[in-house]
Design goal:
Blueprint: H1 7-31, H2 37-53, H3 60-65, H4 73-77, H5 83-112, H6 126-181, H7 186-192, H8 196-201
């Protein structure tokens, strides 16, 4: 399906906004010291790549003169996790999801048996159970944040080129339409000149 007018520009704006939000989320996790050492390194690699592919620090005039984002620029700063790292992250995510299901089931049991908040069941009182659920969900969220940031950084250069091509096409079409408006239609000129047969009638 062909994209409508301005769709690539909108898509680029949405990607940049989502990248900013995911980065803010990971920054908060780093501040709270929730990220592991490897995750901190990956996050800073993402930030370097983000600075490379976004337009921070450019005015509109400078932006017009900028070259399109290069697909080779992103890998130079951010190398996506290798296959083994992706598999390990996937397995870890599955284990956390199972743990979340277990903790939710425990919460339902506590509610069903009306266990007091301070009493323990399966080594959890209400407070520790809630904390464990939150930490488990944060683990899922940060995994998805890393994946989304990486995918966005790989997609942005292509979307940037398409957005620029779309903008140039609209500009060319606009100028072409303007030129046509100022061009005299030769058919109208021809219709204004009397034909030879009409001239003979009045002689």
């Amino acid at each position: 399906v062909r994209a409508g007018p301005g769709e690539m520009v909108k898509r680029k704006g949405n990607l940049l906004q989502s990248l900013s939000l995911w980065s803010s989320f990971l920054q908060r996790l780093e501040t709270l010291e929730i990220l592991s050492n490897d995750e901190v390194k990956e996050f800073h690699s993402l930030l370097e790549a983000q600075n490379e592919v976004t337009n921070d620090g450019y005015s509109e005039e400078e932006e017009e003169e900028k070259q399109p984002l290069s697909t080779s620029s992103t890998p130079g700063f951010y190398a996506p996790p290798n296959r083994d790292a992706k598999i390990a992250r996937f397995k870890a995510k599955r284990m956390v999801l199972k743990d979340i299901d277990r903790l939710k089931a425990l919460r339902e049991r506590r509610n069903r048996f009306q266990v007091a908040e301070e009493d323990e069941m399966d080594c959890h009182d209400t407070e520790s159970l809630t904390r464990s659920l939150c930490l488990a969900q944060l683990s899922i969220d940060r995994s998805e944040a890393f994946e989304s940031c990486g995918q966005t950084l790989r997609e942005l250069p292509m979307i940037d080129r398409m957005a620029r091509a779309e903008k140039e096409h609209r500009s060319t079409s606009k100028h072409g339409s303007s030129d046509n408006d100022h061009t005299t239609d030769p058919r109208s000129t021809k219709q204004q000149q009397p034909t030879s047969s009409s001239s003979n009638k009045f002689q």
